[in-house]
Amino acid sequence: MCLSTEFLALIFVSDLIFPFQYKYLPEVGRVFVPNIRIGLKTIDGVIKYDFLVDTGSDLTTLPFFMAHKLEINLAKATASNAQGIGGHVVKTWLVKLPLIFSNETIFVRASITNENSTPFLLGRVDLLDVVYSWNFNAKKKIIEFEKL
Asked: Which pTM was predicted?
């Protein structure tokens, strides 16, 4: 999901801080959405995408169309399967991605699904408990990535 409001990470020492984002659901009202903007080097230059910070996802996950934009040859990637909510299984390919957080690039293992509707998910592997500790700070209304 891409939200129209542009939010940029603020740098404090080597920590990253992202302001909370919200959306409105008619039946519920205002709802917190843990999205952060992360840059990816594409065929069109570095473009920032909204990633859902998903502590339930093992791998950072991208939709199928991003393979072309990132110039990833899926024929050379390791094929696998992933299971999501409700047991829905999708074909995936395992890749290594450089994620651009402001002025720092971090390489993570990721998956690209065979579906274009897959949301951009920021998973735990190669980030949580290895590079950063993640904190959803409701009092300050920020998501903090504290450098380990």
From this structure: 0.86
